[in-house]
Amino acid sequence: MKLTRAQRRRFPESRELDDLDDRIEVLSDENGALLKALPAIVAASPIGICGKLNIAIKETNNACEDVHRLILSILRDYRALHGDA
User: Fold this and answer.
1) Distance of alpha carbon 76 from its chain centroid, rounded?
2) What b/e readout covers 19-52, taking b as 16+ CB neighbours within 10 angstroms?
3) Residue 59 and residue 35: Cα distance in Å, rounded?
């Protein structure tokens, strides 16, 4: 038996879970918007560059293994040249 969202809201536990689900959806949308804005942000330090590379690594982890490994190697090489940023 599957309850509608309105029917589930009668149960406090379900209400809390639905509220959390709503918040996760909002955060996911915000994350997507921030990811789209990231290329326009200029990294002004080695930490900024490494931060952007770390985000690229996380975003490509499941999408494309070859690209993921390439970006991971770029970050490794950068850190080897410029210290552990």
Assistant:
1) 20
2) eeeeeeeeeeeeeeeeeeeeeeeeeeeeeebbeb
3) 9
Same domain, 52 and 83: yes
Whole-model pTM? 0.62
Average pLDDT of the chain, as a whole number: 86
**Would you state the pLDDT for residue 11?**
81
**Shared-domain flag, residues 31 and 53:** no
C-alpha 59/C-alpha 62 separation (Å) is 7
Q: Please check whether residues 66 and 55 belong to one and the same domain.
A: yes
| Enclosing domain of residue 64 | 43-85
Average pLDDT over residues 56-72: 84
